[in-house]
Amino acid sequence: MNFENIKLDVADGVARLTIDRPKAMNALNSKTLDEIEEAFNYCRENESVRALVISGAGDKAFVAGADIKELAQMTPLSAKDLAYRGQQVYALVEHMGKPTVAMINGFALGGGLELALACNLRTASTSAKMGLPEVSLGIIPGYGGTQRLSRVAGPAVAREWILTGDMFGAEEAHRVGVVNRIFPPEELEAGTMKLVGSILSRGPIAVRFAIEAISRGSNMPQREGEILESDLFGLAASTEDMREGMSAFLEKRKPHFQGK
Ligand code: DAK
Protein backbone atom coordinates (compact mmCIF):
# COMPACT_ATOMS: atom_id res chain seq x y z
CA MET A 1 0.00 0.00 0.00
CA ASN A 2 1.27 3.43 -0.95
CA PHE A 3 0.43 6.20 1.46
CA GLU A 4 1.36 9.86 1.44
CA ASN A 5 0.60 10.93 5.00
CA ILE A 6 0.86 7.75 7.04
CA LYS A 7 3.13 4.71 7.30
CA LEU A 8 1.96 1.19 8.01
CA ASP A 9 4.42 -1.58 8.92
CA VAL A 10 3.57 -5.02 10.22
CA ALA A 11 6.12 -7.11 12.13
CA ASP A 12 5.64 -10.03 14.54
CA GLY A 13 1.87 -9.63 14.52
CA VAL A 14 1.95 -5.93 15.45
CA ALA A 15 0.89 -3.27 12.94
CA ARG A 16 2.57 0.11 13.50
CA LEU A 17 0.59 2.99 12.05
CA THR A 18 2.50 6.28 12.05
CA ILE A 19 0.74 9.52 11.18
CA ASP A 20 3.40 11.23 9.10
CA ARG A 21 2.87 14.96 8.48
CA PRO A 22 5.49 16.31 10.91
CA LYS A 23 5.56 19.76 9.27
CA ALA A 24 1.92 20.22 10.30
CA MET A 25 2.33 18.48 13.68
CA ASN A 26 0.69 15.40 12.09
CA ALA A 27 -2.64 17.24 11.86
CA LEU A 28 -5.44 15.25 10.26
CA ASN A 29 -6.47 16.59 6.88
CA SER A 30 -9.03 14.69 4.82
CA LYS A 31 -6.38 12.80 2.81
CA THR A 32 -4.81 11.58 6.07
CA LEU A 33 -8.22 10.51 7.38
CA ASP A 34 -8.82 8.54 4.13
CA GLU A 35 -5.47 6.80 4.51
CA ILE A 36 -6.10 6.00 8.17
CA GLU A 37 -9.42 4.45 7.17
CA GLU A 38 -7.68 2.25 4.59
CA ALA A 39 -5.06 1.21 7.15
CA PHE A 40 -7.72 0.37 9.77
CA ASN A 41 -9.60 -1.79 7.26
CA TYR A 42 -6.38 -3.57 6.36
CA CYS A 43 -5.60 -4.24 10.02
CA ARG A 44 -9.12 -5.45 10.74
CA GLU A 45 -9.23 -7.84 7.78
CA ASN A 46 -5.67 -9.13 7.81
CA GLU A 47 -5.05 -12.12 10.07
CA SER A 48 -1.33 -11.44 10.32
CA VAL A 49 -2.22 -8.30 12.31
CA ARG A 50 -2.88 -9.23 15.94
CA ALA A 51 -2.53 -5.77 17.48
CA LEU A 52 -2.26 -2.16 16.33
CA VAL A 53 -0.07 0.62 17.73
CA ILE A 54 -0.66 4.19 16.52
CA SER A 55 1.87 7.00 16.91
CA GLY A 56 2.98 10.24 15.26
CA ALA A 57 6.11 10.83 13.21
CA GLY A 58 8.89 12.90 14.77
CA ASP A 59 9.35 13.72 18.42
CA LYS A 60 6.93 16.64 18.76
CA ALA A 61 3.44 15.44 18.02
CA PHE A 62 1.18 12.44 18.12
CA VAL A 63 -1.55 14.34 16.25
CA ALA A 64 -2.20 18.07 16.86
CA GLY A 65 -5.85 17.71 15.90
CA ALA A 66 -7.83 18.18 12.74
CA ASP A 67 -6.17 20.37 10.10
CA ILE A 68 -7.25 23.89 11.00
CA LYS A 69 -6.65 25.14 7.42
CA GLU A 70 -9.33 22.71 6.25
CA LEU A 71 -11.61 23.33 9.24
CA ALA A 72 -11.60 27.05 8.50
CA GLN A 73 -13.36 26.33 5.17
CA MET A 74 -16.19 24.32 6.76
CA THR A 75 -19.80 25.04 5.91
CA PRO A 76 -22.64 23.53 7.95
CA LEU A 77 -23.14 20.82 5.30
CA SER A 78 -19.45 19.96 4.89
CA ALA A 79 -19.10 19.91 8.70
CA LYS A 80 -21.94 17.40 8.88
CA ASP A 81 -20.26 15.21 6.23
CA LEU A 82 -16.94 15.50 8.02
CA ALA A 83 -18.53 14.53 11.33
CA TYR A 84 -20.13 11.43 9.81
CA ARG A 85 -16.89 10.44 8.09
CA GLY A 86 -14.70 10.94 11.15
CA GLN A 87 -17.10 9.06 13.38
CA GLN A 88 -17.07 6.11 10.94
CA VAL A 89 -13.26 6.01 10.85
CA TYR A 90 -12.93 6.25 14.63
CA ALA A 91 -15.55 3.52 15.09
CA LEU A 92 -13.38 1.25 12.91
CA VAL A 93 -10.53 1.41 15.40
CA GLU A 94 -12.84 1.21 18.40
CA HIS A 95 -14.48 -1.97 17.11
CA MET A 96 -11.48 -3.57 15.41
CA GLY A 97 -11.74 -6.63 17.65
CA LYS A 98 -7.96 -6.58 18.20
CA PRO A 99 -5.96 -4.75 20.86
CA THR A 100 -5.28 -1.14 19.81
CA VAL A 101 -2.85 1.16 21.60
CA ALA A 102 -2.28 4.87 21.03
CA MET A 103 1.37 5.60 21.80
CA ILE A 104 1.26 9.33 22.53
CA ASN A 105 4.71 10.66 21.72
CA GLY A 106 3.95 14.41 21.83
CA PHE A 107 0.98 16.75 21.38
CA ALA A 108 -2.34 14.88 21.22
CA LEU A 109 -4.93 17.59 20.74
CA GLY A 110 -8.52 17.74 19.55
CA GLY A 111 -9.13 15.08 16.91
CA GLY A 112 -5.74 13.59 17.80
CA LEU A 113 -6.73 12.93 21.41
CA GLU A 114 -10.12 11.72 20.18
CA LEU A 115 -8.30 9.17 17.99
CA ALA A 116 -6.31 8.03 21.02
CA LEU A 117 -9.52 7.78 23.07
CA ALA A 118 -11.02 5.46 20.44
CA CYS A 119 -8.14 3.01 21.03
CA ASN A 120 -8.35 0.34 23.76
CA LEU A 121 -5.31 1.66 25.65
CA ARG A 122 -3.08 4.73 25.73
CA THR A 123 0.59 5.06 26.64
CA ALA A 124 2.36 8.43 26.71
CA SER A 125 5.78 9.95 26.92
CA THR A 126 6.28 12.07 30.06
CA SER A 127 6.80 15.05 27.72
CA ALA A 128 3.45 14.57 25.92
CA LYS A 129 0.71 17.17 26.18
CA MET A 130 -2.96 16.46 25.71
CA GLY A 131 -6.20 18.36 25.50
CA LEU A 132 -9.43 19.08 23.70
CA PRO A 133 -8.96 22.77 22.72
CA GLU A 134 -11.99 22.92 20.39
CA VAL A 135 -13.81 25.59 22.43
CA SER A 136 -10.84 27.92 21.80
CA LEU A 137 -11.72 27.65 18.10
CA GLY A 138 -15.42 28.18 18.67
CA ILE A 139 -16.40 24.56 18.11
CA ILE A 140 -16.90 21.50 20.31
CA PRO A 141 -15.20 18.10 19.98
CA GLY A 142 -16.79 16.35 16.99
CA TYR A 143 -15.08 12.97 16.76
CA GLY A 144 -16.60 11.46 19.89
CA GLY A 145 -14.52 13.38 22.45
CA THR A 146 -17.45 14.51 24.58
CA GLN A 147 -18.63 10.91 24.81
CA ARG A 148 -15.40 8.93 25.00
CA LEU A 149 -13.53 11.18 27.45
CA SER A 150 -16.49 10.92 29.83
CA ARG A 151 -16.46 7.14 29.54
CA VAL A 152 -12.67 6.83 29.90
CA ALA A 153 -12.05 9.29 32.74
CA GLY A 154 -15.51 10.26 34.01
CA PRO A 155 -17.75 13.30 33.36
CA ALA A 156 -15.97 15.58 35.86
CA VAL A 157 -12.65 15.22 34.05
CA ALA A 158 -14.38 15.52 30.67
CA ARG A 159 -16.05 18.77 31.76
CA GLU A 160 -12.78 20.22 33.05
CA TRP A 161 -10.79 19.30 29.93
CA ILE A 162 -13.47 20.22 27.38
CA LEU A 163 -14.79 23.43 28.96
CA THR A 164 -11.35 24.93 29.67
CA GLY A 165 -9.74 23.72 26.43
CA ASP A 166 -6.49 23.62 28.44
CA MET A 167 -3.55 21.34 27.74
CA PHE A 168 -2.60 18.76 30.35
CA GLY A 169 0.73 17.02 30.86
CA ALA A 170 1.19 13.26 30.74
CA GLU A 171 1.41 12.88 34.51
CA GLU A 172 -1.95 14.60 35.04
CA ALA A 173 -3.44 12.56 32.18
CA HIS A 174 -2.16 9.41 33.87
CA ARG A 175 -3.43 10.50 37.29
CA VAL A 176 -6.99 10.98 36.01
CA GLY A 177 -6.97 7.80 33.91
CA VAL A 178 -6.81 9.31 30.42
CA VAL A 179 -3.58 7.36 29.77
CA ASN A 180 -2.78 3.93 31.14
CA ARG A 181 1.01 4.10 31.39
CA ILE A 182 3.63 6.83 31.08
CA PHE A 183 7.31 6.44 30.20
CA PRO A 184 10.33 8.72 29.77
CA PRO A 185 10.51 9.59 26.03
CA GLU A 186 13.39 7.19 25.35
CA GLU A 187 11.49 4.30 26.96
CA LEU A 188 8.07 4.94 25.40
CA GLU A 189 8.48 2.59 22.48
CA ALA A 190 9.96 -0.32 24.48
CA GLY A 191 7.43 0.13 27.28
CA THR A 192 4.53 0.19 24.82
CA MET A 193 5.75 -2.88 22.96
CA LYS A 194 6.16 -4.70 26.29
CA LEU A 195 2.54 -3.91 27.13
CA VAL A 196 1.44 -5.17 23.70
CA GLY A 197 3.62 -8.29 24.09
CA SER A 198 1.96 -9.10 27.38
CA ILE A 199 -1.51 -8.91 25.77
CA LEU A 200 -0.37 -11.01 22.79
CA SER A 201 0.90 -13.75 25.11
CA ARG A 202 -2.66 -14.34 26.40
CA GLY A 203 -5.45 -16.33 24.77
CA PRO A 204 -6.28 -14.36 21.61
CA ILE A 205 -9.97 -15.25 21.53
CA ALA A 206 -10.32 -14.42 25.22
CA VAL A 207 -8.63 -11.04 24.61
CA ARG A 208 -11.00 -10.36 21.72
CA PHE A 209 -14.08 -11.24 23.77
CA ALA A 210 -12.84 -9.16 26.72
CA ILE A 211 -12.41 -6.12 24.44
CA GLU A 212 -15.91 -6.66 23.07
CA ALA A 213 -17.49 -7.09 26.51
CA ILE A 214 -15.86 -3.90 27.81
CA SER A 215 -16.43 -1.74 24.69
CA ARG A 216 -20.01 -2.79 23.93
CA GLY A 217 -20.88 -3.20 27.59
CA SER A 218 -19.90 0.38 28.43
CA ASN A 219 -22.73 1.54 26.16
CA MET A 220 -25.34 -0.71 27.83
CA PRO A 221 -27.19 -0.77 31.14
CA GLN A 222 -25.12 -2.92 33.54
CA ARG A 223 -27.52 -5.88 33.57
CA GLU A 224 -27.46 -6.11 29.76
CA GLY A 225 -23.68 -5.84 29.82
CA GLU A 226 -23.57 -8.74 32.27
CA ILE A 227 -25.73 -10.83 29.92
CA LEU A 228 -23.34 -10.01 27.05
CA GLU A 229 -20.48 -11.02 29.36
CA SER A 230 -22.08 -14.37 30.17
CA ASP A 231 -22.75 -15.08 26.46
CA LEU A 232 -19.13 -14.35 25.57
CA PHE A 233 -17.96 -16.36 28.59
CA GLY A 234 -19.95 -19.31 27.27
CA LEU A 235 -18.39 -18.92 23.82
CA ALA A 236 -14.89 -18.73 25.35
CA ALA A 237 -15.64 -22.01 27.16
CA SER A 238 -16.12 -23.66 23.74
CA THR A 239 -12.57 -22.91 22.57
CA GLU A 240 -9.47 -25.09 22.39
CA ASP A 241 -7.65 -22.09 23.88
CA MET A 242 -9.62 -22.50 27.11
CA ARG A 243 -8.65 -26.17 27.38
CA GLU A 244 -5.03 -25.32 26.59
CA GLY A 245 -4.90 -22.46 29.11
CA MET A 246 -6.28 -24.60 31.93
CA SER A 247 -4.21 -27.69 31.05
CA ALA A 248 -1.07 -25.57 30.95
CA PHE A 249 -1.80 -24.22 34.43
CA LEU A 250 -2.44 -27.69 35.86
CA GLU A 251 0.66 -29.12 34.12
CA LYS A 252 2.78 -26.15 35.34
CA ARG A 253 3.86 -25.11 31.83
CA LYS A 254 3.34 -22.12 29.56
CA PRO A 255 0.24 -22.24 27.36
CA HIS A 256 0.51 -22.45 23.56
CA PHE A 257 -2.62 -20.70 22.36
CA GLN A 258 -3.71 -21.34 18.76
CA GLY A 259 -6.56 -18.85 18.61
CA LYS A 260 -9.04 -21.71 18.12
N1 DAK B 1 -3.77 22.15 11.74
C1 DAK B 1 -2.97 22.66 10.78
N2 DAK B 1 -1.68 22.99 11.00
C2 DAK B 1 -1.19 22.83 12.22
C3 DAK B 1 -1.97 22.30 13.28
C4 DAK B 1 -3.31 21.95 13.00
N3 DAK B 1 -4.13 21.42 13.92
N4 DAK B 1 -1.19 22.26 14.39
C5 DAK B 1 0.02 22.73 14.04
N5 DAK B 1 0.03 23.07 12.74
C6 DAK B 1 1.13 23.64 11.96
C7 DAK B 1 1.36 25.10 12.33
O1 DAK B 1 0.48 25.93 11.61
C8 DAK B 1 2.80 25.27 11.89
O2 DAK B 1 2.82 25.42 10.48
P1 DAK B 1 3.80 26.52 9.77
O3 DAK B 1 3.40 27.81 10.37
O4 DAK B 1 5.18 26.06 10.16
O5 DAK B 1 3.48 26.36 8.32
C9 DAK B 1 3.43 23.92 12.21
O6 DAK B 1 2.34 22.99 12.32
C10 DAK B 1 4.20 23.91 13.52
O7 DAK B 1 3.32 24.40 14.53
P2 DAK B 1 3.76 25.56 15.57
O8 DAK B 1 4.74 26.46 14.97
O9 DAK B 1 2.50 26.13 16.11
O10 DAK B 1 4.50 24.67 16.69
P3 DAK B 1 4.61 24.95 18.25
O11 DAK B 1 5.59 23.93 18.75
O12 DAK B 1 4.84 26.39 18.54
O13 DAK B 1 3.15 24.61 18.84
C11 DAK B 1 1.10 23.31 19.06
C12 DAK B 1 2.64 23.30 18.76
C13 DAK B 1 0.60 21.88 18.77
C14 DAK B 1 0.86 23.66 20.51
C15 DAK B 1 0.42 24.36 18.16
O14 DAK B 1 0.82 24.12 16.80
C16 DAK B 1 -1.07 24.30 18.23
O15 DAK B 1 -1.68 24.83 19.14
N6 DAK B 1 -1.68 23.69 17.19
C17 DAK B 1 -3.11 23.70 17.05
C18 DAK B 1 -3.79 22.74 18.03
C19 DAK B 1 -5.26 22.72 17.78
O16 DAK B 1 -5.99 23.67 18.15
N7 DAK B 1 -5.73 21.70 17.07
C20 DAK B 1 -7.08 21.61 16.58
C21 DAK B 1 -7.99 21.10 17.67
S1 DAK B 1 -9.65 21.14 17.13
C22 DAK B 1 -15.16 17.89 13.26
C23 DAK B 1 -14.73 16.88 14.08
C24 DAK B 1 -13.53 17.02 14.74
C25 DAK B 1 -12.79 18.18 14.61
C26 DAK B 1 -13.24 19.17 13.77
C27 DAK B 1 -14.42 19.01 13.09
N8 DAK B 1 -16.40 17.76 12.62
C28 DAK B 1 -17.32 16.82 13.15
C29 DAK B 1 -16.80 18.60 11.57
C30 DAK B 1 -11.57 18.32 15.35
C31 DAK B 1 -11.17 19.51 15.77
C32 DAK B 1 -9.87 19.67 16.38
O17 DAK B 1 -9.01 18.80 16.35
Based on the coordinates given, report the CATH architecture of the largest domain: Alpha-Beta Complex
Q: Portion of residues in helices?
A: 40-55%
Number of strands: 10
List the secondary-structure elements in sequence, H or E: EEHEEHHEEHEEHHEHEHHHH
CATH topology of the largest domain: the name is: 2-enoyl-CoA Hydratase, Chain A, domain 1
The structural class is alpha/beta
Task: Give the overall pLDDT as a whole number.
Answer: 96
Shape, principal axes of CA atoms: globular
Tally of alpha and pi helices? 11
Give an account of the 3D structure:
- Strand 1 (6-11) and strand 2 form a beta hairpin.
- The strands form two sheets. This protein has a six-stranded mixed β-sheet with strand order 1-2-3-5-7-10, sandwiched between helices. It has a four-stranded mixed β-sheet with strand order 4-6-8-9.
- It has two domains: 6-200, Alpha-Beta Complex (2-enoyl-CoA Hydratase, Chain A, domain 1); 204-250, Lyase 2-enoyl-coa Hydratase, Chain  A, domain 2 (Orthogonal Bundle).
- The protein has helices at residues 30-45, 68-71, 76-94, 111-118, 145-153, 155-164, 170-175, 188-200, 204-217, 222-236, 240-250; strands at 6-11, 14-19, 51-56, 61-63, 100-104, 107-109, 121-125, 129-131, 167-169, 181-183.
- With 260 residues, the protein is α/β, with parallel strands linked by helices.
- The structure holds 4-(N,N-dimethylamino)cinnamoyl-COA.
- 4-(N,N-dimethylamino)cinnamoyl-COA is lined by residues 24-25, 27, 64-69, 71, 79, 82-83, 86, 107, 109-111, 133-134, 137, 142-143.
